[in-house]
């Protein structure tokens, strides 16, 4: 296959490209320049897409003996990721820019250009296992396509890849999906003579290189004084913009007096219309159900059958004792899965749930077997199940 290898300048993408070459594919390396105002170098593990990263990517391509190009995707990144990030915070939601970037740039934009140039698939350094499609030598074929967690649970990135959908993933290669650990990948890079073997990973939001998300939002959206209020409306303090807060936040609230019971306060909700931030006790963060939209089905939709789900108990508990096992009070509740797991953060703890989906309205509803805290509108919810519990079944955005 003709494969376009995304080279970020880091160790993962370099080893992934090396494995693609070793597998016999015709590989071309490309570095995505996501900003036109790149720093000369990265600051440790913060930021990405620096001129240093571009040079490291070129160096890796030379060692692998593959053609190399730099593509300017800064306009797509600004429009599809950064603008979306600001718009979501302005609307009082909590977006995940890494999910958006994987969906709209690292796959959509890259694959769109690649297909136009005659490539069959793209290879990246993501940690996830993929079978079917290009991974089985059938690029574009969604039959039997399956996205699952990586062998290395600590590095698993299936959560951020789920939004890419069956069509996009059918033309993807993730050569590191079976890597036992990041240490093993670094050792392999060193053995191959790749100069990025010891390069630090990048963390945080890449376009907020200093890690100060609130500062970035204030510089971009301005400041507007508002109030911090209790759930019953008592004014407790002031702030400089509701968009600088997210549900579940405890630190940085700027409160000068403690709660009457001495317990910490958390952000319970933000109200864009009135520029209010509601703060209260931790127990108010608990959610027993999830409503989500913009559904992306990763499981074969033709195999989706009726789900027998337990009705929600008054205390918010409930659900089959084991996957697929009926329990007293069950009802036929649509298409979906019983006793699967849902995850709402990239490396968050999965929670058992019963899930129904409606492909026609692209909505998802999950009844949790135990409460989740700090769930915010705009977050990505990913459903895992299958025989081993590792398969990605669906993804949606919390409403």
Automatic annotation (TrEMBL):
It comes from the Bacteria. Residues 306-331 are annotated as: Disordered. It is found in: Cytoplasm. InterPro entries: MnmA-like, MnmA-like_C, MnmA-like_central, MnmA-like_central_sf, Rossmann-like_a/b/a_fold. It holds the Pfam family tRNA_Me_trans_M. One of its GO terms (molecular function) is ATP binding. Residues 340-393 form the tRNA-specific 2-thiouridylase MnmA-like C-terminal domain. It is an enzyme of class 2 (transferase). Residues 215-280 form the tRNA-specific 2-thiouridylase MnmA-like central domain. Residues 155-157 are annotated as: Interaction with tRNA. Keywords: ATP-binding, Cytoplasm, Disulfide bond, Nucleotide-binding, RNA-binding, Transferase, tRNA processing, tRNA-binding. CDD domains: MnmA_TRMU-like. The record marks 126, 379 as: Interaction with tRNA. One of its GO terms (biological process) is tRNA wobble position uridine thiolation. One of its GO terms (cellular component) is cytoplasm. ATP binds at residues 6-13, 32, 125. It catalyses: S-sulfanyl-L-cysteinyl-[protein] + uridine(34) in tRNA + AH2 + ATP = 2-thiouridine(34) in tRNA + L-cysteinyl-[protein] + A + AMP + diphosphate + H(+). PANTHER family: MITOCHONDRIAL TRNA-SPECIFIC 2-THIOURIDYLASE 1, TRNA 5-METHYLAMINOMETHYL-2-THIOURIDYLATE -METHYLTRANSFERASE. Catalyzes the 2-thiolation of uridine at the wobble position (U34) of tRNA, leading to the formation of s(2)U34. Belongs to the MnmA/TRMU family. This is tRNA-specific 2-thiouridylase MnmA. The gene is mnmA.
């Amino acid at each position: 296959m003709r494969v376009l290898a995304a080279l970020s300048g880091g160790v993962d993408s370099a080893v992934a490209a090396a494995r693609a070459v070793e597998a016999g594919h015709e590989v071309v390396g490309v570095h995505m320049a996501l900003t036109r105002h790149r720093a000369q170098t990265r600051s440790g593990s913060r930021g990405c897409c620096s001129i240093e990263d571009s040079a490291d990517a070129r160096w890796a391509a030379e060692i692998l003996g593959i053609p190399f190009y730099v593509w300017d995707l800064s306009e797509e990144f600004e429009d599809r990721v950064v603008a979306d990030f600001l718009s979501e915070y302005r609307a009082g939601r909590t977006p995940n820019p890494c999910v958006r970037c994987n969906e709209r740039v690292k796959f959509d934009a890259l694959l769109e250009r690649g297909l136009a140039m005659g490539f069959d698939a793209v290879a990246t350094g993501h940690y996830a296992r993929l079978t079917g499609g290009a991974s089985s030598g059938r690029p574009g074929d969604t039959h039997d396509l399956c996205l699952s967690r990586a062998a290395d649970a600590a590095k698993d990135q299936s959560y951020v890849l789920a939004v890419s959908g069956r069509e996009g993933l059918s033309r993807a290669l993730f050569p590191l999906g079976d890597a036992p650990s990041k240490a093993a990948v670094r050792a392999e890079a060193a053995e191959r003579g790749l100069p990025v073997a010891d390069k630090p990973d990048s963390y945080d939001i890449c376009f907020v290189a200093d890690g100060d998300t609130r500062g970035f939002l204030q510089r971009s959206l301005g400041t507007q004084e508002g109030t911090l209020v209790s759930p019953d409306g008592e004014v407790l303090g002031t702030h400089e913009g509701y968009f600088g807060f997210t549900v579940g936040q405890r630190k940085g609230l700027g409160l000068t007096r403690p709660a009457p019971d001495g317990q910490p306060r958390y952000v319970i909700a933000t109200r864009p219309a009135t520029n209010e931030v509601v703060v209260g006790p931790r127990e108010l963060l608990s959610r027993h159900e999830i409503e989500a939209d913009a559904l992306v089905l990763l499981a074969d939709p033709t195999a989706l059958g009726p789900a027998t789900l337990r009705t929600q108990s008054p205390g918010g508990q409930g659900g089959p004792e084991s996957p697929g096992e009926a329990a007293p009070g069950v009802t036929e509740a649509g298409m979906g899965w019983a006793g699967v797991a849902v995850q709402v953060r990239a490396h968050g703890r999965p929670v058992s749930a019963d899930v129904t989906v409606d492909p026609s309205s692209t909505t998802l509803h999950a009844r949790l077997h135990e409460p989740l805290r700090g769930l915010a509108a705009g977050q990505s919810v990913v459903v895992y199940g299958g025989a081993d519990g590792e398969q990605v079944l669906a993804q949606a955005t919390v409403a």
